[in-house]
Design goal:
five-stranded mixed beta sheet, five-stranded antiparallel beta sheet, alpha+beta, 26 strands, 27% helix
Length: 601
Amino acid sequence: MRQLIIILLMIFPAFGYPANVVVSHAIALRGEPKYAQGFEHWRYVNPNAPRGGYVTYGARGSFDNFNRFARRGSSAPLAESMIDSLMTSNEDEDNVLYGLIAQTIEYPDDYSWVIFHLDPRARASDGVPITADDVVFSFNKFMTQGIETLARLWEGITVTKIDDLTVKFTTPQKDKSTTMQMAELRIFPKHYWKDVDLSEPLVEVPVVSGPYTISDYSMGQYVVYKRNKDYWALNHPTQKGLLNFDFVRYDMYKDDTVMLEAFKKGEYDFRSEPVAKVWITGYEGKNIDQGYIRKEEIPYSVPKPMIGFIFNVTRPQLSDRRIREAIGYLFDFEWSNTNLFYGLYKRELSYFQNSDNMARGLPQGRELEILNGFKDQLPPEVFTQEFNPPKTDGSGNIRPQLRQALSLFKQAGWQLKNGKLVDQNGQQLAFELMLWSPTYERVALPFKENLAKAGIDMSIRIIDSAQATNRLRERDYDMVVGTLGGGVYPDNMLQYEFHSKYIDSTYNNSGYTSPVVDALVEKIVQNQSNLPELQAYGKALDRVLLWQYLVVPQWYNDKVRVAYWDKFSRPEVLPTYGVGLESWWYDEEKAKKLPRRNAPN
């Protein structure tokens, strides 16, 4: 009896039992979970999919460790998948989590705390039970050695072990988003990770909580993951029809051309093709002609982030909004789409492309009311014009755009003299575009030529992925290609990308901060469960960011282009917010028809 009272006091101090407490198998940020208690599997999987076989992927770059959360170095592909979280998501819903290591979740209507009841079957990869001690340890590990932005985000949260299978987080933030962040906590088996510094690269094979462990590797060259035959959740409703391969291998490549040729020769099984020219002209040869390799475009019209040439606005020569706007006039998307992309792309128009949160037309209603509160801090165009990137006739003649760009440069104090755009001190406007894929160079070169017409020197530097990672962490670049925003709805991730509190986050590629953006992002975080307010603040943020010209918008596609050796089968149904690649399986009968090659059939 005494023990029961102690437990109750820990759960509900002073017996202050909240009026409404939810105990559930799932939690949804907005609305209700689609899958009810006792569901058997996700809608888009084949629950009877055979498990077995070997899949080999190619990846560009290298790796030097197996710790996805290290603050330096480059981790192996798929390293994060070795660590399970308390609850897990699916591709059919946005921001909905279902119990995995945690069997159920319990929380009050004010979100001041959350309790997880662990599944007693949960085990680490070495068979040791996963308990509340592992959960407490994992949270504290993240707070002291993990990603620094998480420690700031979770400031003030405390965690308490109630019993071996019950753990409580007290969350002063008192919002549902924070509750869900606790549900997504990755769980590190304490008995192994207590001797590991999470902030440092890990070069030995770890004990993990997820379904796959490393069975073979050559550091920086390849890594083989083997599904743990004793993985406790193999037939869990959230895993049924997934985890279908016995072995998953990643081979590393330094060069895109070599990587493509290796695929066509049979060195690996599957690739997603991001380059339009390669998709149209690069897939030829006997293995394609004879049907051993299949090409397919899978519909993928889900909301997308802004993809673009991102300015580092902390660089003095790029800090002026007019300079960034002018540079945008000199990227000829229409010519590029016709001559480089075979007309396969559409232009990016929003940080929330293909969603209901795009800021199109002029602001009105609640969005206008929000923006009016910051009117004296915003450019007039926010209220008077719909944002659209500059458009050319596609002929390659950009004289009208060049005139507009030079006018903006002049307003900002730059003049074209002797073929160079210079400031009042005679210093030429110059910046470097940092790339880590040579395939992007063919896109950047016409941009560079157009900039040269305005007297601007844009150099192009191609570096390897390890160097890129370090330079991104240090914000040691002028311009990069990257993504910002995105999601079905504006979410908490926007804090890392735009809020001044997280200016040191590697997600904040632009380095831009402003009190207006801070205020809008904070309201987005506060209104995650209030859809009308969330959409109004999302549109307002989209509009404000667009008119700051933080990026030169690039392009997107409504399909995912994939090529694969014909050894797979898959469900007929696609998920709502994905293409369902994780639900594919090895088809032994198809594999028998393939020729002998280096990658296992």
